[in-house]
Every structure is written in C-alpha cells, then in structure tokens.
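[SOLVED] Need 3D model of a two-part complex

Original post:
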Amino acid sequence: MTSTVTPGTRTDGAAGTSHTRIEGPAKVTGNAVYAYEQDAVDPLHLRGVGATVARGRVRAVDTTAAAAVPGVVAVLTPDTAPRVDGSATPEQTVLQSGEVHHRGQYVAAVLAETAEAAREAADLVVVTYDAEPATTAFDPASPEAYTPEVVVAFPPDATTGDPDAAFAAAPVQVDATYRTPIEYHHPMEPHSTVARWDGDHLTLFEASQAVWSARRELAQMFGIGDDDVTVVSPHVGGGFGTKGTLHGGSVLAVVAARAVPGRSVKLALTRREMTDLTGYRPATVQRVRLGAGTDGRLHSLAHDVVESGARMAEFGEPTAVISRHLYASPHRRTSHRVVPLDLSTPTYMRAPGEAPGSFGAESALDELAVALGIDPVELRIRNEPDVDPDTGRPFSSRNLVACLQRGAERFGWADRDPRPRTRLVDGWWHGTGVAAAFFPSFAMPGSAAAIRYADGGAGAPGRYRVDIAAADIGQGARTVLTQIAAEALGVPPAQVDLNLGDTGLPHATMAGGSAGTASWATAIVEAADRFRDKWGTDPEDAAEADGVAGHNPAMAEYAMGAHGAHFVEVAVHADTGEIRVPRMLGVFAAGRILNPLTARSQFLGGMVWGLSMALHEEGVVDPARGHVVNHDLAGYHVAANADVGDIDAEWVDEDDPHVNPVGAKGIGEIGIVGVAAAVANAAHHATGVRVRSLPITLEHFLGA
Amino acid sequence: VQVERPADPGAAAASARRRAEQALLGGPATDEAFRAAAAAETADARAVDTAVGGNAFKIPLVAGTVTATLRGLAAHRTEAA
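Solution:
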C-alpha cells in the first residue's frame, strides 16, 4: 500500500507512523478484560422477558412458576421493579409502567444465582396483554409522516433558489427513487453490563463509547450526583454508535441491581435482544432529482427523503445531508420526513445519514453520467464546488478531485468502455463503478487530559502517565492517543502510559461522529504544551499538568470534512444473477493520517461494511407481529471473508492546519460512505440493470 | 443427452415426475434445451407473494441454475472425451 503521510510537525514524529495496537497482545491472548468479564461481587445473573405484542399494555404478570425455579432471587415486573425516578428517554424507562411501545421491550426480568436458572425462569414468566393496533410496516406514503425537529444535529430541510423550476427547465434530468432497509450495528461484543449498588453509589462495568456521558445519563435517571456513579469500560468490542447512549439492557441491569444492594448483576444481551433493544439504522426512501446542462453542470439538485422512525421517541436520520456538501448547484433542496412506527427507536449507526444517503445521491449522479454520456469521474470533477454549498464557507481542505484522479489512475479507469453489458467473461458480466465519499470533520469541546511524570531512577528514562476517559472501541484510540501524547511531549511512545475508559479519569467526549481522536487529541496536546511550559524538558518526579480542549474557532470560518472515492469491480453471473465484488479500491483525503496501520484497518473495515450493506444487510419486520424476523446472524447476513476479493485503501497528502492541533480528520465512518452506490453503479455497467434498492440481490438480474 | 442410472424398482414411478429429465433425453445438450427442461419442471410452480417479499424470482433462478450447471457438466464431459 502506498501511504503518503505528512511527517510529524510538532516534535519528533511519533505520530504519523505505524504502531501496532498497545493492547494487541492482551487481546490475542484473551487477557483483555471486557465489561462482562470484570470482577463481580457475589454476582447474580439477569435475564429479561420481552413483550410479545407491538403495542398495548401489560394486563398481568404471573411470576409463580418463575419464582419457584431453584436459584431465582427475584422476578421483577413493572409493578415491583425499583424506580427510575429521574429523567430518562422512553427506551431507558425500563419496567416503570405496563405500557408497551414495541415488541421485545422488557416487561419483566429474572435475577438468579446462575445464568441458566435466570433463563429458565424467564421462559416461565407468563405475561398477558391488552394489545392495541400497531403499525410496524414502513409506508413512505403514510399520512403520519411528519417533519422531525432535527436530523441528528442538522435542520431537516434546506432550500437554495428554486430547485423545482430549475429542474423543470434543465436540458438533462434524472428523477429516481432509491430505497435502503433497516440495518443493524451488530458489534462482535454484545452490549454487556455488570452493575452494583453500594448504598447510593453505582458502579457499572459497561461496553461504552463514552463513560462520562453514561455516568451523566445514570445520575440523571436516578437523581443522584455524577460522583455517585462510576463507569468503567477499558475494552469495547465494537460500538458503531449503538454503545453511544445507554439502551434498555444496561438500564435493566442497573434497575435490577438496585433490588440487591451490594451484589453485582450481570447481563450480556443475546443477538435477538440486540436486535430488539439497541437501535438500528432506519429504512429510507429517497427521491433524487438532478437537472443538468449538456455540459454536465448541475442546475438543480433535490434530495427528498422519507424514513422510518419510532412512535416512542424521535430519531431523524440525516440521510440527505450529504447532498448539501458534495456538489455545486445553484438550486438545491434537501428534506426529511419521518413515519413513526411501533418499533424500537433507531439510533446513530456508522455514518448516520451519509451511509444510506450516499446510495441515493451517488447512484443518481451515475444515472446522470449515463444520461449525459459523460464519464462519471469527469462528471464529479465538473461539479466540484469552490466553497461549501451549504454554508458558503471555504473548505479547510478538500481533495475529492485528487482522490478521484488517483483512484482512476490506479484502478485503470482510463481504459473503461462506458457501454453497459459488454463484458461477458466465463459466464459473468463484468463492470466497474465509482462513487464519492464525504464525512464531516469536527471536534467536540470539553475533553480534559492530565499528564504526570514519574522519574525513572538510576539513569532510566522517566515515564509519562496520560489520563483521559476516552474510549477504545476497537478503532485504536489507546495506541493513537499514546502516539499523539508522545509527539506532543517530544518523547518516544514507549515512555507514555495512557489510561482511558474510566470515569475516574478526566472527562472525555464520546467516541462518535468520527470526532474522538480530534476531540481527545486537542486536550492531550493542550496538556502536553502546558506541561512543557511549566516543567521544561527535565521535569521533576511527580510533575503534573492538565489541559482542556476548547472550542475550535476555525469551525465557524471553514467547512471541514474528509473526502474519498470508491472504485469497484462487479461480476454478475449471466444465468443466476449472483453478484460478486472481486475488486475494491478506496482513496481518501482525511487530513494527517496518524497511524497508517490502524487507519488502514478503519478504512478497509468501513469498505467491507459498505460491501455488506450493498449485498446482504436487511432487517425484515413482520408487519403482522412487529418483530424482526431475522434477529440473529443466521438470518441477518453480513459480509464474510469469501465476499471480499482484492481490496485496498490508500490516502492522498492533505495538510490541514485548521481542523485541530494534530491536523487529523476522523476516519471511522467515511470508509462505508458511497460503497453501496459504487457497487450499484458497477452492477449497472456490468448488466445494464439499475438496482435502486438495497441490498442488491440476484433476483434483480434474472431475466435481464 | 443420455441417462445413466442404476436399476431402481421405483424408477418407473419416479420418472413420471422427472419432467426435466424427460424433456432432455435423446435431445441435444444446448442452453435452449436446458432452459426448456427447467421450464417443464417448474411449469406447475406457483410463486408466493407476501408483505415482506415473495419468491417469484426462484422460478427463473431454477432455470438459470439448471442451465449453468448442465452446461458446465456438458463441457466437462466433452473435455473428458
């Protein structure tokens, strides 16, 4: 792989070079302690009972048989469970009333001395309901569709000029509707909690993307002080957004633990519970209208979205937000409508908005390229904006064109015959496709870091302890933050001991929005600068300094984002329609790459996820019962090794002095953005069949 | 196309159901013949449609899969000979 990395500019360049994961040996030897394996005090095992109706009220809970199972300590029901008396979201308000918002919602739970007894007893709890009519099928034409307050952090609607008139007058038009299904995070490690109350102090071992915000949520739920809650989360086996806020399972464990003071309550969710209770990416229907001149320049761009939601709490997926940033167009509209359903609440999932939205936006651009007879790489370059189309601000840096050109060069794009359905090799139609990628870059203010020096003694080098309650969710935060601290202090990484994942450490913002590294690095660099200002290069033993990440004023002056280009080859079997992706290349421009080894894993992981989204992933809700039919990994398919062929990622040089002190843009999410469109575009090039809904399965190509 | 099969007392009854095989016996091993045979086999197949998707695609999928598989076998046979 070619890695063109800007060398470290601050001191000795510890960051910017590959460094294996610091906790790698602990993980591969099974010694890394995840939440469920943490030390538990006199532990009890918890098993929830999920509702079997999609909407209604619990009429009665018969706990007689369950309570008689040997080893059962308590059976909790909405009438008997300890109270959540502070503020909580509806999904966090567990066992507080008999109201049922969705199938699978907890309506009872069993605490037992063994996991087996808890499970057996949970199966014996008899719950009867007064069911009410439920709507669980997503109908984009539903009269219940409404405009959400926000789509994550953005306004739902934005209009510039007169997009309808400009579209109507445009010489070349594309008007197409694209669909994406419900999709699930399914991190390898299930959501896991070990909770214990000692008086009014709660200790929680939790698989979490943000221990400090988990603490805040719990303190508010139970009306106690932040200092009365300890949250510890040293290793997390994947988060992807689903471990960003506390879901029903975590709260159930805390509620149950309240009933057995001094004892630890352990809960690891099953895949089925994860499907029912930990959020998902909502389904989207996206109408995209592109009006262009014969030169390929956009006159009008409209991206109007209807997406599924939940009646119990609002979540708006920012599906069309990508269309506010990628291309220049004098007339533009983006809009979002949500159809509330009697399902659990959707949540952030890797590249919320950009992942599904790029399927519509970048498929439509390919359709425009075909309609115009202009190469799709060239068409994107012709529509490159001078400033951010949404805000009018200059870009802090933007190298989408460089990504497209480098990718085209390496992929052999110049030799591409644009005609579809012309390459039949050994019974497979082959084609190639391209799509652009974008993800915003930002940093959350407020993280804090503390640095403490310990003299090495007897001529040995001293050690720098760096504390920050950041989260390593598998992305490599522990390693990269060590490198950043080492660079900022001007010492080798081996002299730095970095601690994270514990509310006993200084406050840190969430591992989310691809903003973790930028946010935490800002605090670490500030602390390191203050340490050197205070102590120079020869500190005394126990020398200390700390730093807090402030707000980056440049965020108000510049538009900041990472960009990329995906090139894929697709083969579709001429007889069976089977679709394979033998070749994938992603080229990214994401500021300074701090660790090429872990960065490559982030990019490739995102691309494989995009491939999985393109070909496999689809949550299927039974509209009669409101349950997710494929609620395990046997039914919910994800890409496996055999799905991935020749895959590679590289990046172009990008020196961005504005984004943050280390010049890095977040890379956790951009890898997935645009992949599904690139696959659909390549499938069209291969077969002449345009697939406008995900996943792209073989039936679309049969009879073509 | 010829059939090679061990003697089987139930073969007579079974052969009545083997429409694809009957359609192919004695004829040329061509894509058209394979497709026609698969079509004969699935002539009575009725697809089911539901609110969460149907299985109509499986009927042409049978034809495609049978055709691809038999074509491969025929090529293999030709190479072996």
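Edit: Chain B touches chain A at residues 51-53, 57, 60-61, 64-65, 67-68, 71 (CB under 8 Å).
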